[in-house]
Amino acid sequence: MKSPCHVATNPNLFTPLKVNHKIIYRSLGFDYQEIKTLQIRPEDWHSIVVILYVYGYNYLHSQCVYDVAPGGLLASVYHLTRIENPRIPSIFWVWKRVDFQKRESHDMLGISYDNHPR
What we know:
The protein is of the alpha/beta class and about 120 residues long. The protein has helices spanning about 15-20, 45-55, 100-110; strands spanning about 5-10, 25-30, 35-40, 60-65, 75-80, 85-90, 110-115. The chain contains 3 helices and 7 strands. The chain starts with a strand and ends with a strand.
């Protein structure tokens, strides 16, 4: 039995997806932050991910799993958002200890630090 994938994102994005790409989904309403949540068929998930990335959803904020019903299906939930590619000056030359944290924030969040050693 296949588990559904849920995605929380901008509700305006999914109208063209349904029309232009013939993606089938079911609205699950809004979460506590008023972000629309949709149920996606597992067989459409790879297409959805690529389409969302092309539309600018370039950051996976979080992913979690929950029981739809005890002993039944598990649902995988993805919270996607857009982030600009922020660039800020590096302070590595002042505090060398910041090296690890900056590398981690670059890898995890895409923040670029100008003049930071690679």
